Amino acid sequence: MEFNVTTLEGKDAGKVSLSDAIFGLDPRQDILARMVRWQLAKKQQGTHKAKGRSEVARTGSKMYKQKGTGRARHHSARAPQFRGGGKAHGPVVRSHEHDLPKKVRALALRHALSAKLKAEELIIIDQVVAAEAKTKVVAGTLATLGLTNALIIGGSELDNNFKLAAQNIPNIDVLPVQGINVYDILRRGKLVLSKAAVEALEERFK
């Protein structure tokens, strides 16, 4: 399919051909949900930890004698029911990561790209460059395109001026094409691809 290309200043820059195998799919919510869940689980540190009864610093001796007190039978003050005791079934350091087939991950990225095109939230620009690393200038340029919440994907090498200027703008993310991912695509309103990014994606899924 043919898609219009613009410049950062909003001027027409011709057309580009998009592959139906990447941008023309009917998006499936279940695949996208599986991918986002996989990404977020992989991102979790898993460093949460609570001390069990064998780890708390309390005496392990019997609290009081077994019989004759009229009270319940107890042994250690480390038991979970006592203040200062160990946590029963508390969180432990672990990995939250789970498996997701590589083919499903690749399919999810294509569905995310197709979802943006179908929702008319895809913009293709000729190149992602800035003459100087000035946040005010780049923010004004993006505002002319109506980009207040967007993910911008450049080529394999990002223009350093644009990257430095854009990193201070709220709700604007800039990534090289090899860093493109489903979670970042879906969490931002608009998806902005450079022509170099489109070519790299089509080469990747060839």
Please tell me about this protein's structure.
Residues 43-97 are annotated as: Disordered. It comes from Rhizobium straminoryzae. GO terms for molecular function: rRNA binding; structural constituent of ribosome. The chain is of the alpha/beta class and 206 residues long. The chain has two domains: 2-43 and 99-204, Ribosomal Protein L4, Chain: A, CATH 3.40.1370; 50-90, no CATH class. Helices cover 33% and strands 14% of the residues. It contains seven helices and six strands; from the N terminus they run E-E-H-H-H-E-H-E-H-E-H-E-H. It has helices spanning 20-23, 29-43, 102-118, 135-144, 160-166, 182-187, 195-204, and strands at residues 2-6, 12-17, 122-125, 150-153, 172-175, 190-194. The protein is elongated. It starts with a strand and ends with a helix.
Layout of helices and strands:
Layout: E1 2-6, E2 12-17, H1 20-23, H2 29-43, H3 102-118, E3 122-125, H4 135-144, E4 150-153, H5 160-166, E5 172-175, H6 182-187, E6 190-194, H7 195-204
Parallel strand pairs: 1-3, 3-6, 4-5, 4-6
Antiparallel strand pairs: 1-2
Helix pairs in contact: 2-3, 4-5
